[in-house]
Here is the input.
Amino acid sequence: MNRKELFQKNIATIDLVQEMIMVFRRQNFNRGDRLFPEWIRNFSSLVESLFEKKKEYNTFGDIVDETRVAQMLRELMQAQEQKDYVLLADLLELKVLSFLLSVQDVIRMQESGDLLPDFFEKNCSCLGKQQLVKILLDRKRVMKEDMQMPDGGMITEYTDKERSCTYYIEQTSQGAPTLRLTDRAGDFYFHSNHSPLSEARLLVSNYYKPEGKEYCIYGLGLGYHISALFAECRGSAPITVFESDPHIFVLALQSLDFTRFLSNGVTFVYDPDFTLFMKYLQEHPGEVPLIHYPSLRNISCQSVRKRMEELFVQDSSVRNQLGEMLSNFRSNIRNCSRYIDELSGSIAKKDIFLVSAGPSLDKNVRLLKEKPKSAVIVSVGTVYKKLIKEGIRPDFAVFLDASDRIYGQVAGLENETVPLWIASTACGKIAARCRGETYLICQEDFHEAEQYAGGHGYRTYTTGGSVSTIAFDVCIRLGAKRVIAIGLDLAYTGNKIHASNAGRRELSGDVSGLLAVRASDGSTVYTTQAMEIYRQWFEKRIRQAVKETKNGEPAEFINATEGGAYIAGMKYCTLQEAINTAI
Here is the structure.
């Protein structure tokens, strides 16, 4: 085994060690015990090659020593036989990993040639006739011409003069390559400079779900997270990877062997203007993309980067709240006195005024005092206090957010008897402390809620991502005759964010990064990517409601917001007109 082959084999051996350390410390002993024999085989083959050229590898110190290696193996085997997994993980980290990393350092010092294989042609062949192949071949040719490099050499450094940035392929401590980029803002890495493979496993563990049917990823980097996700899915779920930077494609395809999964459900999409990525999200509204954050940093268009950051923050907040959501779920199923399905008789065939917190609410909210007694007011939690202060008592208030901070929406009103609709993962303190009847809502796409609802014969409801969307879905499913929305701006009407007394009020004058969309009056209004996703959700939900109606007239959807973004499928009128025709 020559030094280059040994170097590559050692990368895999180090990766196995790091994976075993992780699974043993997670008490996944079954997985660790299955990896251990595989690692022993790799390690034995590796040290055999080292012993054959012991003198050569000990040029810079006493690295390869048969007695020391044999003692290390005895300690490992004894720890495994005694099932002392704490000690086993420590030995792997402190002794084995240290030894293997030292071997990589010695090989690097002795080998003047390139230790990294070039997989570009192999990967392009696997991509086949995709248009992407021609783009990549042309881009690689241009990069090499700019650098005055021969065709045989790997690109390890490239400067994009147009963007004033430089890409660097660097070896890590482990030996696997990583990618560094220098631009006007400074340097940043796409992957760990120590162990990119174990870093990728850690990242993917936060996104992979056994029940996941497909995955969307923005950001290729060098592809470690793609490989790690594929390994988790075992080819059972298609993975679509979007990347906007052609240089990243070239550097990734030369650095890692993608052939084993490019023909097994993984698709690469070159998307320089992000239209394909946004279209994919629109066509898969329930799917949350894995946004590779360093790739997000590489987006040069500031408005696009801002929109992507919103998606990233939105997704991260949900993931970071998962423990809180589970805790809230357990609290809410214990403290909610009723289930939302019981309200079918109170909602069916009635006019529902759904009150959201958009800035235009200040124009017409007081008119709700004139609504017919038979009509029902459903308030999102954000404006619950505002309505009470206005002397308008809602029939129901709705809560979705898992964070404890939304408890402020009911603080001081705990003794009010207004019935509350509580999403199963919403702040648990609300149902626990408020006096009014509390109705549990089990939402779709939250595993524990789906199981609980199924076990009790309850329906599940679609959240849509916001408190207004889940309230809208509940009203439809409970058979409302008309859903009349007010305060549903889904945009910054008059450069305002919320209605007064309902959260942060003013929008700064800077609208860069915002979307310009059609307003309800035909003009233009600014919105965020998140609110645009909600707007599209409303349109899709309305189409679905009309399609699902089999007997009788479908529910009517009235938008009496008097401002904000246009929502197709809704009829527009003033709130006064809606009240005059309500029954």
About this structure: The chain has three domains: 3-110, 120-302, 323-580. The first strand starts at residue 157 and ends at 160. The CA atoms of residues 180 and 189 lie 4 Å apart. Residues 323-580 form one domain.
